[in-house]
């Protein structure tokens, strides 16, 4: 609660001096004492740091994704998950920069988002640490019973096609296994996040 109070005081103190020149940022949510601002949502949308459906209230979706992300980071911090090297970060950063025609365009977008370069590095590092944790805890490498695969194939038959032709089970077995494990992993991650929600304090102020 102290962190929430201090964040609110900081905004109130800054606003009288600069409110005439810039729009006051808004607190959209507080997750275990960590504030998520409207500018955070805009920055993640600007750089497409988390996938959302742009045709359906992208800002609300991003807020919910950022809440889940904050919960995941808290868990990763609790287990002290670290990075083996910075190669992954350098690669991800290069991908972000390559979305812009010039380095100047990238720098301008960074400034417009309210982020600094170090903020972007921290975001990429946190995301990489969360991914490492999820890969280790919810890996896809397990033996799958043939009955499980056939049941999944029967359920998804209409979606398992190639060049417009529906594939027989034996033709599509590897694809079926990969999709089955991928969906199983996604369901387990969703369940994990739901558990984090239940045991954490999440306050939404609307967006």
Record the SSE blueprint:
Elements: H1 2-18, E1 27-31, E2 34-37, H2 38-46, H3 58-78, H4 87-97, H5 103-113, H6 117-137, H7 146-156, E3 161-162, E4 165-166, H8 169-199, E5 202-204
Helix pairs in contact: 2-3, 2-5, 3-6, 4-6, 7-8
Explain what the structure shows:
The protein is mainly α. It has a single domain, classed as Triger factor/SurA peptide-binding fold. It has helices spanning 2-18, 38-46, 58-78, 87-97, 103-113, 117-137, 146-156, 169-199; strands at 27-31, 34-37, 161-162, 165-166, 202-204. It has a 3-stranded antiparallel β-sheet with strand order 2-1-5, sandwiched between helices. The longest helix has 31 residues, at 169-199. It starts with a helix and ends with a strand.
Précis, in short:
The protein is mainly alpha-helical and 207 residues long.
Mean pLDDT: 88
Structural class given helices, strands, pairing?
mainly alpha
Rg over alpha carbons: 21 Å
| Percent of residues in helices | 55-70%
What spatial order of strands do you see in the largest sheet? 2-1-5
Number of helices: 8
End-to-end separation in angstroms reads 21 Å
Strand coverage percent: 5-15%
**CATH topology tier name:** Triger factor/SurA peptide-binding fold
- What's the CATH first level? Mainly Alpha
* Poorly predicted parts: 1-22
